[in-house]
Amino acid sequence: MRTSIATVSLSGSLTGKLTAAARAGFDGVEIFENDLLASPLTPEEVRARCADLGLTIDLFQPMRDIEAVPEAEFARNLRRARHKFELTRRLGAETVLVCSSVSPQAVDDDALAAEQLSRLADLARESGVRVAYEALAWGRHVSTYDHAWRIVETAGHPALGTCLDSFHILSRGTDPKGIADIPGEKIFFLQLADAPLLAMDVLQWSRHYRCFPGQGGFDVAGLLHHVLRTGYDGPLSLEVFNDVFRQAEAGPTAVDARRSLLVLQEAVGRAPLPGPVVPTGVAFAELVTPDAEPLSALLGALGFTRAARHRGKPVALWEQGDARILVNTGPAVRRDGTRLAAIGLESPDPAGAARRAEALLAPVLPRRRAPGDAPLDAVAAPDGTELFFCATGRPDLPDWRSDFEDTGREAGPAHIRGIDHLALTQPWHHFDEAALFHRGVLGLRAQESVDVADPYGLMRSRAVTNPDGSVRIALTVGAAPTDHTVHAQHIALATDDVVASARRFREAGGTLLPVPANYYDDLAARFEFADGELETYRGLGILYDRDAHGVFRHCYTRTVGRVFFELVQRDDGYRGYGAANAPVRLAAQHTVRALTGG
Ligand code: MG
Ligand code: MG
């Protein structure tokens, strides 16, 4: 199916928007009049630029508040329309959008609306264009798609059809089933947008919070099913008003947008994508650092053994149980120092996983990072994290482990079982994109997003997991592009006895994040504990949470660069990540930073 995007969905100048849309692989655009007015290009030049980029102009939005008004008013509207239809013709566009009127002049008279829209369509036809009439959810008298369609049907004009907009339909809770009753050829255009489920004024909701399909709470795929059943064969067009996207770079937003349409088309059986290959575990987490010493001390105290070294690069493999951490001192390290740069995901079909990622517009990384490396399939996530698809120990496939030679060091008794979860911070304007990427590309399930108070703002967090929980990634973003600890990433290590693990860590010289006494006073009020239990937690800085399934106990190391470790004990099927404790943790980290000047 053809894909299109409204210029209003992207930031920048009109030409920048067009370039971004073309690069992301869109077939066409909807041009918003404001983008044209602000452009130094003539309509003919815009048309030529689009043609050069391989884009069609699928829709022009220059007019509103046309219909169901007194005759004198309508005559003025027709005069305005004549200019705009001529402009549409010069752009080489075929369809003009007219939204249902919000004017106080408009009267509640469907027959008058149909008659005037019919005359408008006559005029459109003279310029060789056609009119798509759309019900705004806040239209004065026409606010539902079926009402708009009844008026179009009454008018019975060949140059008048309807435009369906998933936001206007789904935000009102209207049943989209009736769409199937509209003849496909009378649906002149289809605009798609999702939105988070919010209880707010629908106009504000629409203008500021729309997002790409799959990023919000609407059943956009369900709606599209009904539209496709009519035989509609026009483009799928994204019309997304979003405060964040308006500020973000147009290029990545356009890629995110087109990925959302690919996932959506797949959901309705219209995109021949390679199927998802869901990862089955975490092979490794790779940290890059300018100085291996602080990390080595920390990993040693946590009970890890430096088990192997890379044959050709300054990369050490630290192991304990099934937890494997690579410490890479090789690449030029950015200003922010130590960070989590790559994740190895165990994959039943690494090449298939990479093919799907590529089909969903993820940048594919060179299979060998250096001569002599095992050829691994890898892609970049939107935040730049490198994702390697691994087949650890599979004799039939390249094994990353073969790039390493053992140090011969004896491993101590393992009290860490493996990696419980990884927490990645996202660039603040790419949070929704990150969730869609991990869901669509990797086939992980997204959980509800939660907001957490940080001393300097709000943090949003959303976890994505595989079915058995052996891959858990918490995606986190600050509410603003600030430079606080919200930028910290962490690796959570699973233990069966967090108290014993915390004690061992301390005895080995490790320092745990101190937790304020007030926190434990509150815990005592909320939960019942066995004698001495709470004192033990208090003494070590262990945090506690409980959900409908089980119990979570966890504590934190100090931060190195941007990275810290968490020790977690997850009992009886607890599903969360201790989000209730995150504000205390964040405040404690801020206190440590203030004290150490870090
Ligand atoms: Mg619309
Ligand atoms: Mg955590």
Question: What does this 3D model show about the protein?
Answer:
By secondary structure, the chain is an alpha/beta fold. Helix content is 32%, strand content 25%. It folds into 3 domains: 3-267, TIM Barrel, CATH 3.20.20.150; 281-403, 2,3-Dihydroxybiphenyl 1,2-Dioxygenase, domain 1 (Roll); 418-596, 2,3-Dihydroxybiphenyl 1,2-Dioxygenase, domain 1. The chain has 18 helices and 24 strands. Strands 1-2-3-4-5-6-7-8 form an 8-stranded parallel beta barrel, surrounded by 6 helices. It has an 8-stranded mixed sheet with strand order 14-15-13-9-12-11-10-16, covered by helices on one side. The longest helix has 21 residues, at 71-91. The model has no long low-confidence stretch (mean pLDDT 93). One magnesium ion binds next to loops. It catalyses: 3-dehydroshikimate = 3,4-dihydroxybenzoate + H2O. Catalyzes the conversion of 3-dehydroshikimate to protocatechuate (3,4-dihydroxybenzoate), a common intermediate of quinate and shikimate degradation pathways. It is an enzyme of class 4 (lyase).
